[in-house]
């Protein structure tokens, strides 16, 4: 069974990936080509990417991934922690996951869905104790 990979290119227009099982193409800081297929097929069509991520082994720092507009990976990193958490931490992580999902939808010009996801995130944040708000803002780096 083919595996899932994300190939990262500089911002480019991708016109033709015939014969490649593409899940999604996302653009922000990079052009991300999300596939369930062999990366070699994309490389043959577009050349060597900046880097390739095997989605079975997503690693990294949430903040770094978020700032690099790698929202899908940031979401996955948080989801592992969210599954193990409970209480306020679980709500906090869920809000961050929803923000990542909202950014993905926004970049795909799905504004209504993005807005709903952000509303859900803000609703979760509003349920958190007020003393966690500075932590929330500092942690995602809004003051940096």
TrEMBL record:
Protein name: DUF309 domain-containing protein
Matching Pfam families: DUF309 (PF03745)
């Amino acid at each position: 069974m083919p595996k899932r990979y994300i190939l990262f290119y500089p911002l480019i227009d991708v016109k033709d990936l015939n014969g490649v099982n593409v899940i999604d193409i996302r653009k922000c800081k990079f052009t991300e080509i999300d596939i369930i297929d062999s990366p070699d097929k994309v490389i043959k069509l577009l050349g060597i990417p900046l880097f390739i991520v095997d989605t079975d082994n997503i690693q990294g720092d949430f903040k770094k991934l978020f700032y690099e507009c790698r929202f899908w990976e940031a979401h996955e990193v948080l989801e592992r922690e969210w599954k193990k958490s409970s209480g306020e931490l679980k709500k906090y992580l869920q809000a961050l996951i929803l923000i990542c999902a909202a950014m993905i939808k926004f970049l795909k010009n799905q504004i209504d869905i993005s807005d709903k996801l952000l509303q859900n995130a803000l609703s979760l944040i509003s349920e958190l104790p007020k003393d966690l708000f500075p932590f929330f803002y500092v942690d995602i780096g809004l003051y940096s």
